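Note to self: keep these together.
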Amino acid sequence: MSENKHTMARLTRPEIVLTCEHASRRFPTELGSLGLSLAQRRSHIAWDRGAASLTRALATALDESPLLGRYSRIVADLNRSPSHPRVVPRVAFGTPVPGNARLTSAERAARLARYHTPWRDHAYGVIARAVGAPGGCIHLSVHSFSPTMHGVERNADVGLLYDPQRAPERTLADALRERLVREGLAVRRNYPYRGTADGFTTWCRNYFSTTRYGGIEIELNQRLVGHAGVHRRVIGAVVDVVEAWRF
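Structure:
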């Protein structure tokens, strides 16, 4: 490749892929309630409230098509690797899930084959194509978190999860944090979870280089869900940063 083509490649905006693994609280009809009450199936143990609407709004602003999980994470957690012990959780945030408690290995494998593998394979294919584009890929995985956990208040409006050992991700997270703080939001990095814990972005890092793939989990505090002004500020900040980003 000539020097001019190298320069053009560096100046090309990355492809942006938006995923929302915990978008839905739906349960497939054939699985029933898995032994949970209606209130439990509507609570944060079943989904990330507000994450889907934020993902759709980001997709509209960026002119992208979002990849949204169809069913509750209690059915099969799309943000967990297939081998993770809680990919089909027996206990969800301290709540026992009777319908998952006694699955055989064959039943667990069948559950994953139907509700986990197809979504993950499709999303991986979309990301792989974006990684192969001239500008590489920014993967934004959108989530939300409950305001308190085990009686402790979580003191952030937005969390940004990334791998600090991957320099481009670290720089991108820093840029996002700076821009979000300018919007008056309290932002913490690798909070309320570690960016290197098991998750879809972590899994993708095993397959794509630091110079072609950057995966960031955006975590919105659920106490801000439904605040249109906050959503606009988050969307504006994210769009400004990723539109200007280059590997």
